[in-house]
C-alpha cells in the first residue's frame, strides 16, 4: 500500500512552464497511465497537444479552477469536475485559473495493454539538464534505454547529455543511432545547441 | 458522438453498489482504456465497499472532495482532498467519508492486459433502476451494453440476474442460456451454484437442467 498527497509528489517543471507530478512513477503503477499536473511559471497545467498514439484521456480537476481549451471550445472546470476527451485528434490544453490548481490525467489506448510512454522515461532527465548535472541526466536516459533500446527519442537525448558532458564519441554514436531509426532527428540535430561541441566533428549527421 | 464530455462528479446520477453510492463514470462516458469510477458519501457513510481485487486490478484512489478514512490491509489512513492511495490487487481496502459530500475518483486495470471490464458497474446502474421500479430503463441499459459488447458473457449473465430478481423467470432463463453458450464452463458453473440473485429460479426444473 502507498499513499501520497499531490503536493508531496516530485515536481518536474517542463518546458512549457507547467509542473509534472509523476504519479505512475511514484507508485510504480504498471497497469494504466496516470499523472498529475500543477501550474508552473507559465500558469499552464496541461500542454496543448493531441494524442497521436490514439489514447483516450480523462482529466480530473483535483483542486482549484482550470480553463480547458477543447478544439475550438473553452470550459472553466473546478474541483470535482472532469473532462473525457474521447477523440485522440482533438487539440486540448489547460491553464490554471487559481494558483492551487491540480489536474489528474488518466489515459490509455482501448484494446491495448498499458505500456509506459517514452516521454515518461525521458522527462525525468530534463531537470538535470537544466541544472547542468549531465551525469545524472545520462544515468536516467541509460536506464530508459535499457527498457527501450531502439527509442530514437531516448538515444537523441542521451546524445545531448553526452555532448554537454564532454563525451563526444559516445554522443556521435547515439545521435547517429537515433537518426538511423528516425530521420527527423537528423533535422533536429542541425539546430540543437546541445550539439555545438560536436557539430564540426567527423561523423556528425550531415544536413 | 461528441469528441469530449464534461462531468460534475458530485452532481451526477448515482447507482447503489454493495451499500455504497457509485458514480458510474466508465458507464456514463463509455471510457474503454481503463476502469474508472467514483464513490460519494456524507460523513460516516461508506465510500468503497470492503473488498480485495480478485480481478488482479491495480487501483488508484484519488480524494477529489472532502475527506476520507481509508482502511488498507491493517492500516487506517486519514486522507484529505488531494490524497492519492494506491492499492495492489489482493489487498483488503475500504473507505468511509469523514466529511459530507466526500468524493473519490478511482482508476484500475490489470498489468499486461487490455482493459476488459464493465460488467459489475453496468449491473449496478441497471439494478438501481430496477429497484426504483424503472424496469424498462433497467432493461434498456442491459440491452445497450449487450449490443456494445456482444462478446462479454457477463452481460447476459447479469441480465439474467436482474430478470430473476424481478421474478421474470422465463426471461432470466433465456439470458442464462445465452451466457452459458459463451462463458468458460467452470467459471459460470460456480456463479450458477452460489449466486443468490438467481434464487427465484432455483426451484424451476429448467434451471436444474441448465445446471446439468
SSE arrangement:
The complex is a heterodimer of chains A (207) and B (212).
Chain A: E1 2-5, E2 12-13, E3 18-21, H1 23-27, E4 33-39, E5 44-49, E6 56-63, E7 65-70, E8 73-78, E9 81-85, E10 92-96, E11 102-108, H2 118-122, H3 126-130, H4 134-147, H5 152-164, H6 168-181, H7 184-191
Antiparallel strand pairs in A: 2-3, 3-4, 4-11, 5-10, 6-9, 6-11, 7-8, 7-10
Chain B: E1 4-8, E2 15-17, E3 20-23, H1 25-29, E4 35-41, E5 46-51, E6 58-65, E7 67-72, E8 75-80, E9 83-87, E10 93-97, E11 102-109, H2 119-131, H3 135-148, H4 154-165, H5 169-182, H6 185-194, H7 205-211
Antiparallel strand pairs in B: 2-3, 3-4, 4-11, 5-10, 6-9, 6-11, 7-8, 7-10
Helix pairs in contact in B: 2-3, 2-4, 3-4, 4-5
Q: What can you tell me about this protein's structure?
A:
The complex is a heterodimer of chains A (207) and B (212). Chain A is α+β, with helices and mostly antiparallel strands and 207 residues long. Chain A folds into 2 domains: 6-108, Sandwich (Jelly Rolls), CATH 2.60.120; 118-195, Tetratricopeptide repeat domain (Serine Threonine Protein Phosphatase 5, Tetratricopeptide repeat, Alpha Horseshoe). Helix content of chain A is 31%, strand content 29%. Chain A has helices at residues 23-27, 118-122, 126-130, 134-147, 152-164, 168-181, 184-191, and strands at 2-5, 12-13, 18-21, 33-39, 44-49, 56-63, 65-70, 73-78, 81-85, 92-96, 102-108. A 6-stranded antiparallel beta sheet of chain A has the order 2-3-4-11-6-9. In chain A, strands 5-10-7-8 form a 4-stranded antiparallel beta sheet, with no helix packed on it. In chain A, strand 2 (12-13) and strand 3 form a beta hairpin. The radius of gyration of chain A is 18 Å and the shape is elongated. The relative contact order of chain A is 0.12. The mean pLDDT of chain A is 95. Chain B has 212 residues and is of the alpha+beta class. Chain B has 2 domains: 9-109, Jelly Rolls; 135-211. Helices cover 35% and strands 30% of the residues of chain B. Chain B is built from 7 helices and 11 strands. In chain B, strands 2-3-4-11-6-9 form a 6-stranded antiparallel beta sheet. In chain B, a hairpin with a 2-residue loop joins strand 2 (15-17) and strand 3 (20-23). Chain B is globular, with a radius of gyration of 18 Å. The termini of chain B are far apart. The mean pLDDT of chain B is 95. Classes of the chains: A alpha+beta (207), B alpha+beta (212). Chains A and B meet through strand 1, strand 4, strand 6, strand 9 and strand 11 of A and strand 1, strand 6, strand 8, strand 9 and strand 11 of B.
